[in-house]
Each structure stands twice: as C-alpha cells, then as structure tokens.
Amino acid sequence: MGKLTGKLEFAAAWSFREALRNGGAETKLSMVLMGLGNIVHKQVAKGLIYMAIEAAYVVFMIMTGFHCISMLGSLGTVGQQVVWDEVNQVYLYTKGDQSVLILLYGVAVLFLTVLMAAAWHGAVKSAYKAECLDKAGKHVNNFAEDLKSLLHENLYRLFMTPPLTFIFGFTVLPLIFMICMAFTNYSKIDNHLVLFDWVGLDNFRALFDSGSILGSTFWSVLSWTLVWAFFATFTNYIFGMILAIAINRKETKAKGFWRFCFVLSCAVPMFVSLLIMRTMLQPNGAVNVLLRNIGLIGADASLPFFTNPTWARVTIIVINIWVGVPYTLLQLTGVLQSIPADVYEAARVDGANAFQTFFKITLPYMLYITTPYLIATFTGNVNNFNVIYLLSGGDPVTDLASTAGKTDLLVTWLYKLTIDKQYYNIGAVIGILTFIILAVGALLTYRNSKSYKDEEAF
C-alpha cells in the first residue's frame, strides 16, 4: 500500500502547474519548442513527433490559418462582380467572398488551435515527467515502450481517441458553427445568402418579441411543442401501462398472443403506417368515404382531421398513441415481470386491495425504473419530426403571414425556416433554444427524480 501511495504521489507531481513551477530549463523551453525536454531526457522519437506537430501547425497558420481567423471579423466584404467584356461581348463574373466558407474555415482553425493547445499542454507534462524520472534515476520509456503501453495501462487512450475525434469533428465542430450562425444575418431576407455580417443578439430579440410575426409564431409553436411532448409521452405511458398490467395478470390467458397482437404494428416501418393513416384521413380518404356511405355525415361533408387546428392536434396525438403504445408495452412488461411476487403476497396478507397495491407497489416501482426512459421519450417527442411532418406536414396554416402551421413543432418549423424559407440565422437560434430547453428540462426532471436521489445516497 505504501509503494502504491508513493507512486500515485509521484505521478501527481507530473502536472502542468508543477512543470511551470519546478521544471528545468529544458522543460520550460518545451513550452516554446515542443518536445525539447523529451529529446534531452532520452525520448528522441517522441520529442521529434512533438516538434513535427508544432512545425506543421506553425506552417499551416502562416500559410492559411491567420488569414482565416482575420476574416472572421468581417465575414467577407467583396461581393461577386459582373464586368462586360466588350471584345467578346459577354459578361464576366469575378468570384467574391463567401461568408459561409469564411465562417466555417475560421471556426475550424480555432478548433484546431484548441487541439494544438491540448497537445502543447500534454507535451509540457510529458517533458516534465521525463525530467523527473531521469533525475530520480528511474527508467524513462522509449518510443517502443510508449507504444506498448497503449495495449496495457494506456489502453483507454487507444480506444477512446478515435471516437472522441469523430465526436469533435462531426458533432462539436458543426454545433459551434451553427451557434455562430445564430449571431449573423445569414438568410434570404435582404439577400444575405452569400455575404452576411455579424448582428449580435438581434435574431434572439426578434424571436422573443411577441409583438412581431416571428415572435408570436415562436411562442405559439413553443407552447404547442410542450403540450404535444407532454401528451405524447404520458398518454403512451399510461395506456402502455394499462395494457401491460392487463396482459400480465395471472388470470389473463394466452399472454403471448395478446402481446403479439399489439406488437405486430412494430413490424411495419413507422413512416409507412403514418403515410397510410394520413391518406385514410384525407377529406376524400377511406375514413370519410366510409362515414358518408353509412350516413353518419353528409354526402358532401368530411371530418376535418387535418384542416381544423384542434382536430389536427387531437388526431396527431391519437395516432401517436396507436404507433407508440406497443413500444411502451414491451418496456413496461419487462419491468412488471421483475417485481418480486413476494411483495404482492405480503401486501395481500396485510389486507391491501388492488387499488392500494397499484399505487403503493406497482406504480412507484415502475416510475423508479422508467424515469430515464420517460425523460428520453419526452426529449424524443419534442424533436419528433416524423410523426408531425408525415401526418400533417405542420398544417393547417391559418395565418398566411406566418411561417409555421398549427401543428408544427420547433423541429419541423426549423426545417421549414432553413430548407423552404432559407432563414438560416433564425433556424440556428431555434436550434440553440431547443437544445437549452431539452437540456434544462431533462436535468431538472432527473435531479428531482427518485433515481437521482438514490444515486446521491449511494
């Protein structure tokens, strides 16, 4: 135990702060010339690799990087020029600045600089570690031994580096790019699709201004998104719970058959089911034609499943129940079967009825197990693009000046703003706000759940 403690204390001394405070001249010079300390202390190959990385970064910054960063301030000023060529009798077009590329390249260079700073930080620590080991008369790993350590004590670095690279390259970098776009006027308005500028918080002010068309649309869509997410989540949960309890009862015969009947709809791709339902509920679809034929509605009448705002919203929620309940049934069936039978037997011995058993045993246990599932489902329903877009397309539109329909969620509205309207700046703002709403909602829900409290107690 004493050896292990001494080893950990010695390893803890190889920090960046200790390198600044107690490092030798070669270690401190490694802050300027990466890898120098490693070369001095018998790690030549490792030091040369650090030097090569630094040299490549410096050359890149001189050739391209500094220019990309300097252009971030203006995002370009030179537009495409049209010049009449008198000799050839044609118009010649000269290429101007493209703000999208300037922003993308600038963000990428800043991101690369952050990675370089991390490499620089690691190089200084590595140089100080080599210095400490060498001066203490301990063995300093050569390059081959460092590579071999990737299969043993540093195996986590070997396995975690590729996925982290992809996460930063294909998730974090695009996310930062989108966040930056929210502070520009990149949109079709005033023809800012090629050249655009920084506008600060103007887009956020416009979206929060309830007196404007854009602001009123945002608050309307946001309120419906939250209402939809609540009902879509808890109606599926409640009906799935009822079905799971009914099928799981001892008195229910042919349990497998009943589960098969309800889960059969999962075998059909969801988008196919949604498109079929959309076709059936059209004014001249199968449902309205059937109602006319049996005389429940007039010969020229039709139920406004997708033409009336209230009808459309209720229709979507009902269809979502039909589509989503089988998945909830499968989830809760497993939870119910994991509850010990002895608990129910003890409750019956104590005189508890079915109502008390459900609210004192079944429901608390199910909520304890499925709280993360509920949070994930609520988050998924806020971003449930498929159900809304394939069923109603966000319609009906009652205000022609609005860019959203009465059943549009934030995610479908964002799609329309960017793909159809080319209001990329407003779409970026909505994307940021959606992320914040989901993150805060999930965090608050989880921190107030019994699962979180039990983890804290543990």
Tally of helical segments: 20
Shape: flat
Q: What is the residue-averaged pLDDT? A: 87
**What's the helix-strand series?**
HHHHHEEHHHHHHHHHHHHHHH
Question: Largest sheet at a glance?
Answer: 2 strands, antiparallel
* Cα radius of gyration in angstroms: 31 Å
Any overview of this molecule?
The chain has 458 residues and is mostly helical. Helix content is 69%, strand content 2%. It has helices at 2-12, 16-22, 25-29, 36-40, 44-71, 99-135, 143-149, 155-181, 202-208, 213-248, 255-263, 270-280, 286-293, 309-337, 341-349, 354-382, 385-391, 410-420, 424-447, 450-457, and strands at residues 81-85, 90-94. Strands 1-2 form a two-stranded antiparallel ribbon. α6 (99-135) runs antiparallel to α8 (155-181) and α16 (354-382) runs antiparallel to α19 (424-447).
Task: Give a brief description.
By secondary structure, the protein is mainly alpha-helical. Helices cover 69% and strands 2% of the residues.
